[in-house]
Design brief:
The complex is a heterodimer of chains A (396) and B (163).
Chain A: H1 6-16, E1 23-27, E2 39-45, E3 48-55, H2 63-67, H3 72-80, H4 87-102, H5 110-138, H6 143-163, E4 172-173, E5 176-177, H7 185-207, H8 211-217, H9 225-230, H10 236-240, H11 247-250, H12 276-302, E6 327-333, E7 338-344, E8 354-358, H13 360-365, H14 368-371, H15 377-387, H16 391-395
Antiparallel strand pairs in A: 1-2, 2-3, 4-5, 6-7, 7-8
Helix pairs in contact in A: 3-4, 4-5, 5-6, 5-12, 5-15, 6-7, 7-12, 12-15
Chain B: H1 2-13, E1 18-22, E2 29-32, H2 37-46, E3 54-63, E4 68-77, E5 82-91, E6 101-103, H3 111-123, E7 126-128, E8 156-157, E9 160-161
Parallel strand pairs in B: 2-5, 6-7
Antiparallel strand pairs in B: 1-2, 3-4, 4-5, 8-9
The chains are: A mainly alpha (396), B alpha/beta (163).
Chain lengths: 396, 163
């Protein structure tokens, strides 16, 4: 046994030494309530979870290694596969980082920026709808799941129309877009917004004040703000704990400073601040804010920055990304939280030395052993669902 | 801003703590001494006016022919909405018996726990004082550290051909 295997030996000893009263239960990796291929090793005493040991890596696809073996443009399809429920947001963050290093981010046409924000917000709604719907199903409510998927389908169809793909779009390119929006997209999107607004109220009424739902989520898994910060939680996780921290406002990237929207935070309406209900509610409110952003984008895409025949979304796409040797860490607000890319470039080549992706789910999940300690197994499902992880991003 | 932070650290912890500031075009980097890392981390987290309470990311960069590993810490301050990049340079001979060593900051920011496990797993950096340093993304019995530039894929894994 060397120093380097000490951690592994200690872990094996701990599992071997559990008392006869305790039991080790494996949750996952092939169980729908873990939202993917996550394996949780639970040390339980009856119904009470005493310790949680997460095992990751079942979906590890070597994103970092791929990214440093090809040029920047070719990595964009891989970024789509990080958080596969919000592909647009991933590629937006990656592309922004490269553009800033190239120094072309300020020169981009406003129409491109507004289209980017529009598709990102549509994708954010789609991602949150999955989060809300599957959360309902986790704790036994089947109808919201069907409703969410029905409405998400409209977004998928629209984004398929724009990019040619349902989930993994490769639509946002360095210095531009794959194509301009198809003719009639703005009108169809407007139709969707007017269709979806009452549906969202309906969904909110169905779930938020449902007595069974409240009993399962309120006061469960309350995450204090200081613990959330300690564990690097971001996005709805952190906001549900009462901290107004949204990178769209803090960093003010793209055209977000020109848009009007509020940052919903948890208020502890149904129980303690930062409980599962708050996390759910923040997502519902964020969908509402995203609709506001979409409406403003549509207005501007039909007004000031409307389609012109000579508009070429690929005009500024660089043939070769020539970068000086430098380092840069870009962060952006994904539906799940802070998505970051750390770039280290090399001289005389367009292949990066290092690209590290910081997945928000990876950090949000790391708080689970702390949150789930001492809870019932059934409540652990509710807590895990409220974190809203995507394993593609946890394992990368 | 970064020069100010550098002066503050030097005033509090002595001349040897900070090696230099690296002026990058977009984000300046504070290069610090590995031996002072834990004190610097605590200082940055707890000093009024700085409060870098949020560790966004830890990434390790392998400079292959030079035999050097850079551990980069991306910090953010939620109350002041500022960002800071810390870097520690670790010269190393790249052998698997002598991994580069650096103090763990997981006692300062709990985020570091999983990030350091990932860095240990994929890059082979040993974090001294980490409570539970195991592989996180790869299987426990994996040999080598795949993100190193000189890593060579094994022919088989448990008798399964993987090439």
């Amino acid at each position: 046994m060397t120093r380097y295997t000490e951690g592994l030996e200690n872990y094996k000893k701990k599992i071997a030494a559990i008392s006869s009263q305790e039991m080790v239960i494996n949750m996952g990796p092939q169980h729908p309530s873990t939202h993917g291929v996550l394996r949780l090793e639970l040390i339980t005493d009856g119904e009470i979870v005493k310790e949680i040991i997460p095992h990751l890596g079942y979906l590890h696809r070597c994103f970092d290694k791929h990214a440093e073996s090809m040029n920047y443009g070719k990595t964009i399809p891989f970024t789509d596969r990080l958080d596969y429920l919000a592909s647009m947001n991933n590629s937006h963050a990656f592309v922004m980082g490269v553009e800033r290093m190239l120094g072309i981010d300020k020169a981009l046409p406003k129409r491109i920026e507004y289209i980017r924000v529009l598709v990102c917000e549509l994708n954010r709604i789609a991602s949150h709808l999955i989060a809300i719907g599957t959360y309902g199903i986790d704790i036994g409510a089947f109808t919201p799941f069907m409703w969410c998927f029905r409405d998400r389908e409209h977004i998928m169809n629209m984004l398929e129309w724009a990019s040619g793909s349902r989930m993994l779009y490769n639509y946002i390119w360095i210095g531009g877009l794959f194509y301009d929006l198809p003719v009639g997209f703005e009108e169809r999107c407007q139709d969707f917004v007017s269709y979806f607004k009452p549906k969202l109220i309906e969904l909110d009424n169905l779930l938020s004040t449902n007595q069974i739902f409240i009993s399962r989520t309120a006061n469960i898994g309350a995450l204090p703000a200081d613990v959330a910060i300690q564990y690097g939680c971001s996005g709805p996780m952190l906001r549900a704990s009462g901290i107004k921290w949204d990178l769209r406002r803090v960093d003010g990237y793209s055209v977000y400073p020109e848009l009007e929207f509020d940052i919903p935070v948890g208020k502890g309406e149904m129980g303690k601040l930062g409980d599962c209900w708050d996390r759910y509610k923040v997502r519902v409110d964020e969908v509402r804010e995203s609709i506001r952003i979409i409406e403003q984008c549509l207005e501007r895409l039909k007004g000031d920055f409307k389609r012109t025949p000579d508009f070429d979304p690929r005009a500024m796409v660089p043939r070769k990304v020539n970068l000086k040797p430098q380092e840069y860490y870009i962060r952006a607000e994904n539906p799940k939280g802070e998505l970051g890319f750390h770039f280290v470039t090399q001289e005389k080549t367009d292949i990066p030395r290092r690209v590290k992706a910081r997945g928000p789910s990876f950090n949000n999940l790391s708080v689970l052993p702390e949150l789930g300690k001492g809870q019932l197994i059934a409540d652990l499902i509710a807590i895990l669902g409220s974190i809203d992880i995507v394993l593609g991003e946890v394992d990368r | 801003m970064i020069a100010q932070i550098k002066d503050q650290i030097i005033n509090a912890l002595g001349e040897g703590a900070v090696i230099r500031t690296d002026e990058q075009p977009l984000q300046p980097i504070l290069v610090v001494h590995a031996g002072y890392l834990l004190e610097i981390a605590l200082f940055l987290r707890d000093t009024e006016g700085l409060y870098f309470d949020f560790l966004s990311n830890i990434s390790v960069v392998d400079y292959f022919p030079e035999g050097r590993f850079d551990v980069v810490y991306h910090l953010a301050s939620i109350p002041y909405q500022t960002q800071l990049t810390l870097k520690v340079e670790l010269p190393n001979d790249r052998s698997l018996e002598h991994l580069p060593e650096i103090p763990s900051v997981s006692s300062v920011w709990r985020t570091a726990d999983w990030h350091e496990r990932e860095a240990f797993d994929l890059m082979g950096v040993y974090f001294v004082g980490h409570p539970d340093l195991r592989r996180i993304l790869l299987p426990d019995d994996w040999q080598g550290h795949p993100l190193r530039k000189d890593y060579e894929d094994p022919e088989t894994y448990h008798g399964i051909a993987i090439k």
